[in-house]
């Protein structure tokens, strides 16, 4: 692997890349009329802002008003909340559809009848990235947090990047932003191979594990997609890969860009050393090619967030951010919504919400939260996401709750499942597996039952966590009112 240049004068100039101006050769958006169906979505809202700043005329529609649509309207974007065919503007040239928009949407049907160009969100993300210096964050886990960390570092360093993430970043005012800086930081999702619409100047792959097995055949199919993503990073750019990954060799071989690694110890170019815990959160020395740049104390728990921070630091330094700005931003980072998010502390009970819905994420998150809060009892309300995922990972899920004293499982959240998927597995089957693994578990099908149970059975010193990619967050939010 090509080594980076040496650190100079205590700054982050140790990582430097020279990027071409190919992004400036893309077709101009100036003067183009783009209509966005589902414009209030987190990613769609960010794309709309960026398109406006590129000179496009943007209109949109959504089912209802939201802070995101109100923000767009304040920028001059006309948004309608009655999705009818007749409301598709006559001079529309491109139509962008969020992932939630079905083929029977009246505006989409009208666009097809008029033979307009129709793009999926991920396709448009790739097109817009051509007008910026793309910074893409991929991986099975940690994308949203690392995207947020990277965007915060660049923002605090004064680069004013555009960014599109998968969760609200309270410190940056939302999940997306159209900045006037040259960088575009984007979460790159592997589902449906949507990240292959991107050709960034810089990218990281945080990890590669089996997931989305309703779409991919197996881990080899998944790895092949990630390798193709890495291969699409500009040749004069930068790829940052996990040093301890079993797939490092395949990923690095796929890259034509310069490759750096991150992880623990001397094996990594961007390394964490002298790990310790301070008030339940990580502290570590960040070293670049063996030279310690300084110590970082995070405000978010878990060793997984050390890895996220290393990747974000590498990307930011690759963009020219000095070390002092990197450290300042990482130490000030307070997390994002639905990622180990503290909902409240009432009657001696700590309430936390988290998005984890994969066995690896569950294990890492529960371990981190137990270390952070030191509860006398940890109760996890886990709502499985997708019947197909639950079926594929049943045994892994059953052994993911070692740090929990009680696991409460409501019914499975239905998403992209077929009728046969739904019939093949039930939440009660997962509870049986958890019990067989030696843990205490209950199946309470509906959220009101879960809430009533916890209102009655909570104790001072409890840590209660709502966990899953569905609407299970409602449990801890309601408990905060009722306990």
Give your account of this protein's structure.
- It is a single chain.
- The protein is an alpha/beta fold and 483 residues long.
- It folds into three domains: 28-121, NAD(P)-binding Rossmann-like Domain (Rossmann fold); 132-332, Mur-like, catalytic domain (UDP-N-acetylmuramoyl-L-alanine:D-glutamate ligase); 341-482, Protein-Tyrosine Phosphatase, Chain A (Alpha-Beta Complex), CATH 3.90.190.
- It has 16 helices and 21 strands.
- It has helices spanning 42-53, 67-74, 106-113, 121-129, 143-156, 219-231, 248-254, 303-318, 323-332, 359-373, 387-392, 394-398, 419-424, 427-436, 447-457, 473-482; strands at residues 33-37, 57-61, 78-80, 94-97, 117-120, 133-138, 162-169, 174-177, 183-187, 202-205, 238-242, 258-264, 270-278, 281-288, 291-297, 341-346, 349-354, 377-382, 406-409, 441-443, 462-467.
- The strands form three sheets. It has a ten-stranded mixed β-sheet, with helices on both faces. A six-stranded mixed β-sheet has the order 16-17-21-18-19-20, with helices on both faces. The chain has a five-stranded parallel β-sheet with strand order 3-2-1-4-5, sandwiched between helices.
- The longest helix has 16 residues, at 303-318.
- The model is unreliable at 1-14 and 16-26 (pLDDT under 50).
